[in-house]
Specification:
CATH class of the largest domain: Alpha Beta
CATH superfamily of the largest domain: Enolpyruvate transferase domain
CATH topology of the largest domain: UDP-n-acetylglucosamine1-carboxyvinyl-transferase, Chain
Number of domains: 2
Largest sheet: 6 strands, mixed
Shape: globular
CATH architecture of the largest domain: Alpha-beta prism
Radius of gyration: 21 Å
Bound molecules: shikimate-3-phosphate
Length: about 425
């Protein structure tokens, strides 16, 4: 188990280039495997999670060649995947398991899909339910947990009103919709990231979007079905959810001046930037361009005192991966941070509410745990001190407390720091490079 020691910093300066966006990389890898021809995915995420997806696509017959951060995928065509005699291993990745389940439900073969201890504890009923409505034959442990036994079968299109705001559930149904007879419709209660919709369009599927409703035509649905997916050459933008750790670090010190290059700025992901700005952060986006339907730009961040505040309601789904960092910033804000309506945090890679409360307390913060969130007091409650942090194997908890440690008194030690590799293998090196001491 690796330990990383974080010492107090004076400022965050220089430039940083982030790994490719994790959510987009998963989708490109899956669709490239289903496309006809060779796709080139440049600046593909270095995240262990995305490499789990590539390994699964390889086991299903796609040819995958990795050269640095560029990945060539020779697709098998939408009806060309082959069965894997071995169970597919999604590792720590909920996105891999939930999205692939949608694809595998409509194949002509059976698959066993499993993952690590954390993933085997995460709820799968949320995708098994709607996929069964489409005719899928899926068995799950206790009807809710991996391993999933997926017996591929013919699917029918459904009109699905999602009971929860989840991009993974939406995506599982839309991807299954490619293999369904007719037009599959999904309506979300609140907007979530739309990378699946954009990627489906890029690879040639017939997708329609109206507000919170998305429709996809099955590939073999008469004249409306696209018939097939076509290989593409695509650039993956840097991961905004990873950028948030650097933005947060820069905010902590008045002398900071940081440039973060090529960050994905899809509007369904930028609620975090709006929130930072509303709390007083100094973030500018000097350049903006469009890449394959996704917006991309550089972020220039200067130090600024953050006000803090309450985060709740529809915004939670749009900020879900950023909540650990926001909570760990709480003690450095004027008014503290309160998170409500976020019980979903309890079923992420760890119980993030419990992990945040435990580690904030270790650093001396004043924090109250709630069933659906937490409240952490701001600066007036006192300065944080370094401590030994247990991230519970959760990458975002490890990275959030590494950032909190930069402005604490004394050293902070992150136990089991290798878990950061789930989304960002070079995080600690990159942070050390921009932290001035
Ligand atoms: C993701 C969706 C989110 C997010 C996860 C990645 C995606 O999960 O937390 O890290 O790529 O679709 P939910 O859709 O379950 O909220």
């Amino acid at each position: 188990m690796k330990k990383e020691t974080i010492l107090p910093a004076k400022a965050i300066t220089g430039g940083v280039e982030l790994p490719g966006d994790k959510s987009i990389s998963h989708r490109y890898a899956m669709l490239a495997g289903l496309a006809e021809g060779t796709s080139e995915l440049r600046h593909f995420s270095a995240a262990v999670d995305c490499h789990s997806t590539l390994a699964c696509m390889k086991a299903l017959g796609a040819e995958v060649k990795i050269e640095k951060d560029s990945v060539k995928v020779i697709g098998r065509g939408a009806r060309g995947l082959k069965s894997s005699w071995r169970a597919l291993d999604a590792g720590n990745s909920g996105t891999t398991m939930r999205l692939l389940a949608g694809i595998l439900a409509g194949q002509k073969f059976n698959t066993r899909l499993t993952g690590d201890d954390s993933l085997q504890k995460r709820p799968m009923k949320r995708i098994v339910g709607p996929l069964r409505e489409m005719g899928a034959d899926i068995r799950a442990r206790e009807d809710n947990f991996a391993p999933l036994e997926i017996h591929g079968t013919a699917l029918k299109a459904i009109d699905y009103k999602m009971p929860m705001a989840s991009a993974q559930v939406k995506s599982a149904v839309l991807l299954a919709g490619l293999f369904a007879d007719g037009m599959t419709t999904v309506t979300e209660p609140a907007r979530t990231r739309d990378h699946t919709e954009l990627a489906l369009e890029e690879f040639g599927a017939n997708v329609e979007k109206h507000g919170k409703t998305t429709r996809v035509h099955g590939l073999s649905s008469g004249s409306n079905g696209a018939g097939k997916l076509v290989a593409k050459s695509l650039d993956v933008p840097g991961d905004l959810s990873s950028a948030v750790f650097f933005i947060s670090a820069a905010c902590l010190f008045p002398e900071s001046s940081l440039l973060i290059h090529n960050v994905g700025l899809n509007p369904t992901r930028t609620a975090i930037l709006d929130l930072f700005l509303s709390m007083g952060a100094a973030i500018q986006t000097p350049t903006l361009r469009s890449a394959h339907g996704e917006l991309v730009g550089d972020l220039a961040v200067k130090g600024a005192a953050l006000k803090g505040g309450v985060i709740e309601g529809e915004r939670i789904a749009l900020l879900i991966d950023e909540l650990p960092m926001l909570a760990a910033l709480g003690p450095y804000t004027e008014n503290g941070i309160e998170i409500r309506d976020a019980k979903e945090l309890r079923v992420k890679e760890s119980d993030r509410i419990a992990a945040l409360v435990e580690n904030l307390k270790r650093m001396g913060a004043t924090v109250e745990e709630r069933p659906d969130g937490l409240r952490v007091e701001g600066r007036k409650a006192g300065k944080l001190h370094g401590a030994e942090i247990d991230p519970h194997g959760d990458h975002r908890i490890a990275m959030a407390f590494a950032v909190a440690g930069l402005a604490a008194e004394g050293a902070t030690v992150i136990r089991g720091a290798e878990c950061a590799g789930v989304s960002y293998p070079t995080f600690f090196e990159d942070l050390a490079r921009v932290a001035e001491r």
